[in-house]
Structures are given as C-alpha cells and as structure tokens.
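re: that chain from earlier
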Amino acid sequence: MDLAAPAAERERPHRLYHELLRRCSGLPALPTAVAHPCDEASIAGAAGAAGLGLIAPVLVGREAKIRAAAEAAGVDISGFRLVPTPHSHAAAARAVELVRTGEASMLMKGSLHTDELMHEVVAADTGLRTARRMSHAFLMDVPSYPRPLLITDAAINVIPTLEDKRDIVQNVIDLAHVLGIACPRVAILSAVETVTPKLPSTLDAAALCKMADRGQITGGLLDGPLAFDNAVSVEAAAEKGIRSEVAGRADILVVPDLEAGNMLVKQLTFLAGADAAGMVLGARAPVMLTSRADDDRARVASCAIGVLMMAARGPAVPA
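^ sequence. v structure.
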C-alpha cells in the first residue's frame, strides 16, 4: 500500500509506522553513528531500530555513560561498535566525522542537545553541508487526517528568509517523492489566505508559488498563503471560496517560522495523538534529529525514513 493512500485504506493504529517498516523490508541495515546515546530512551531507540534490521549502530560517546544507560534500559549492546569520546561535544564531532568519511551512512541524535549536534553538522569545513540549505521535516500520521502529513521547518531554521524557504520547500518535496508521493500538494501557511504587506509570510507564500511557476521549485504543486484550516479542510476552503488543488488536501505544510512549526507539531502530537518522525534534509547524509521526548516508535520511524532516503540515492559509486 502506498504511503499516500487515503485513511479508509490504512488500518490503525500506527499504520504509517508499519508501512515504513514494510517498505524497508529487504534493504540492508545501514551503519549509523549515534551521537551520545547516554540515556535509556536514545539507547533503546537505537537498539530497537537495529533489532528491526534498519541500522547497525555505532555508539559514539562516553563509554561508561553509554554502558550505564544500556544496563538501565535492559539493552544488550555487545554486538554494537562503540567509539569512546570524553564528552558530548566530542561525541557530536566524532559522529559527524564518521559519516563524512564514509564509516557510517547516517547520523542519529542521542541524548545531547540539538544545537550541540547541529553545530557540527553545519560546520563549513568538517560538517555535512551541501549546496542546499539544511532544513527539517516531520512526517506525521494524524488520526483525523486522511493522508500522511509533512511539516517543515519546525526544528532548524528559526526565521527563514525567502531564499531559505525555497530550499526548505524543495527539500521536503524531494522527501515526499522518496515516500511515494509523486506530486505532493504543498500548502504555504500563514494566518490568512490573502496576500497582505502587514503579514510578510503572505508575501513569501505568494513569491514561493511564483517561483514554482518559473521552475525554481520543482516536483510539487504549491499554493499559498493558506490558513491552517484552509490547508487541511475541504469544507473550510469551500466556505472561504478558495479554488485550489492544494486547499483541504495538503500533503505538506510549510510554516512561516520555527515557533509556529514547533507549536503545530506538538499540538498534533499531544492533543491529536499523531505519530511523528523527524529528519534533517539537505545534508550529505540522513540525520535523524529526534526529540528527547520521542518514544521508540518515533526513533525507529525516523531511521526507516533515513533508510528509504539512502535507498533512493542508489548504490554508492566507488571513488
């Protein structure tokens, strides 16, 4: 079953999670540098993904803390490679280095702060930069919504410029393609559905849509500005007289800034019971940027998305 199938065809609970695992079936476990997995949640998440055949964890951090966390979580890490470092800063740097040099295919956040890991990921000379700006996307399975929902950017770009948003949109469209959504509908969110200079996000939305018309953004169908209700509810869009292929049927929500995105994702998770998985996009390798509050299912799902991203790239070409 395709990830874009309507809800009536997707049994719950957690059908999207199981569909991700199904799509990864038969793909090789990827060596994954896990930066500072020094609490029960992060070590258990890595071990869970390994147990499902998604990753081969390379545990990077202070050895005594990693072993203590594994013991507390009841996790056997004897089969995992362990790369000792003196502290979390060193763990972030070493984990990124393992990915950059090809010893690991993916990077996974452990129990260190996001800023600490991303500082190393975005480093100009030693990080995982590409020509495109990095961004973050959440893949969400909202029980009341008839399709998977991608939300970007709620974790990296605080107040993105129009140029940043162009890359943010292209990054998430590319991810949608990996997930089997051939032509994702992209809703550029604001507080209203009309363009007004009083709300700069509406100007950005209009500009992004025109950029798509001119081929500066490809692979998706954009519309905006759209208020949240108009993006996800056909009825709300009809009441406003909005005629659009995107309104009410969005596959992707592009938020105006990190604060709006962060609140939206957490509201859907904690009030609507949505499953969520998070991924950094635009880097040289998949980066699973999970929250310390995420459960094992979210960590495993993030790994599954990374595996699918790597599979979509095809086999590595020898140097």
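Residues 5-11 have pLDDT under 50 and may be disordered.
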